[in-house]
Amino acid sequence: MKYSDASLLSDIENIKKIPIVSTMLEVICKSTGMGFAAIARVTQDRWIACSVRDEISFGLQPGGELQIETTICNEIRDNQQAVIIDHVQMSEIFADHHTPKMYGFQSYISIPIILKNGDFFGTLCAIDPKPAVLNNTKTIGMFKLFAELIAFHLETIQVAEQSKTALNEMNHKLVDSVIENRQFKYISNHNLQEPLRKMRVFSSMLVQAGEAGDVEKIKFLAGKVDDCARKFSELVKELSEFSELYNDTDFELVDLRKLVAEVCDELSEELDEKNAKVHINPLPVINASFAQMKQLFYSLITNSMQHSKKSAVHEITIGSKEITQKNTPQLPLQNDSELIEITIEDNGAGFSKHQLERIFDIFPNLINEELEKSDGSGLVYCRKIVRNHGGSIAVESEPGQGTAFSIIIPINARRHGRV
Questions:
Q1: pLDDT of 156 strictly over 70
Q2: Is residue 286 a contact partner of residue 253, using CB atoms and an 8 Å limit?
């Protein structure tokens, strides 16, 4: 199994979080008389020192590496059995072994660290250029106890991190839920009531016109009632589609560059009509919902075209870069999550500060219940899609200076279900 550098760095950091490690290595050196003790992370192709006590100037620091093929730990990893050598020169097995010859030690002990789930983590080991009395119940028992303590602490740290991630994810979902519930409540109490109010008014006027026999007015008012009913139906339909936009689809590897090119091809007529050009810079392949990613870029490109300047060619630039999680503590991610930032920038008309505050709201154009101005907005879908993938979306804009959307999303995203 291959491990990423981020994963191995996390393992080293987890060893550092164990408060008794330095005391443990000190006890090993004092009780055995050996001058070098270490905890090593050992994989199929790496040997990395996580913590070190060096009294013999061996020269290895935490984070330092040895070629895995030059170590005895390479063999311990495969059979998960301890290796104990009191005196290399007196050992039938290791007298001619390449490892003690290379590193110049005569005494050696290495105990495998096995995690609770049975996985091999690495070794607790010690060496010295002089012989030592190691192959006895007391020394072996101490090493095994320390190895078990290390495994226990690593398990505790993992559980704590998983709990923290789960709590962050739940808080993330609850924030989404609170925002959406507040918007649904407002829409239910205000926006959806307005077309109903107008329908009642026009219906009452329609009855009066019927009693008066005013045919032209009846036709006019009937058209108004029908128009209100149509718009009410559209609002209800869009709300229903929004509420159902969760991650009930399979995730797969999605080539975002090909996907964006496909979206641009489908929007080619609209792009030509708006005199717009889309520049697609390198984009990654990520684990995601193909359908939702397509809707995301479709909505962002369409929104950009809606706010183009009539006097200039509308330029839309889409690109990406890898980032670290240190800049995104608000996201409920595992420590080894690889992140990508996707940017969608244009030179359009931009938005005012007041508009930006509501840009991701459901029906942001429903201001003062002016139903005629409302057509909903695809941007609220964008935020929900990004959050379905465990990411975040932000926007910066200045009137007349264009708009820049920033999407931060895990490359290996997993589904984030509803609360």
A1: yes
A2: yes
For the chain, the average pLDDT equals 80
Distance CA 240, CA 381 (A): 12
CATH topology for 247-419 is Heat Shock Protein 90 (3.30.565)
Give pLDDT tens digits for 385-417: 888 888 888 889 888 888 999 999 998 865 554
Q: What is the mean pLDDT of residues 154-181?
A: 66
Helix (H) or strand (E) holding 376: none
The beta strand positions in 347-401, using DSSP E, are: 392-398
51 contacts: CB under 8 Å, gap ≥ 6: 15, 16, 21, 22, 25, 38, 39, 62
- Domain at 5-161, CATH from 3.30.450.40, 3.40.50.720, 3.40.50.11600, 3.30.70.270: 3.30.450.40
Q: Which range among 166-180, 208-222, 301-315 has the greatest average pLDDT?
A: 301-315
Query: Whole-model pTM?
Result: 0.47
DSSP 132-166: ----SHHHHHHHHHHHHHHHHHHHHHHHHHHHHHH
- What is the domain partition of the chain in residue ranges? 5-161, 247-419
Extract the tokens encoding 417.
């279900």
Helix H or strand E segment including 65: strand 65-66
Do residues 336 and 10 make contact, with C-beta atoms less than 8 angstroms apart? yes
Measured distance CA(192)–CA(254) in Å, rounded? 38
Residue pLDDT, tens place only, 78-131: 889 999 999 999 998 999 999 999 999 999 999 999 998 899 999 999 999 999
Please give the Cα distance from 290 to 331 (Å, whole number). 22
Instruction: Return all residues near 173 (Cβ < 8 A) that are at least 6 apart.
Output: 416, 418, 419
CA distance 125 to 83: 9
**What gap in Å lies between CA 385 and CA 392, rounded to an integer?**
9
Per the listing, tokens 């999680």 go with: 325
Condensed to tens digits (0 to 9), the pLDDT of residues 55-84 reads 999 999 999 999 999 999 888 998 899 999
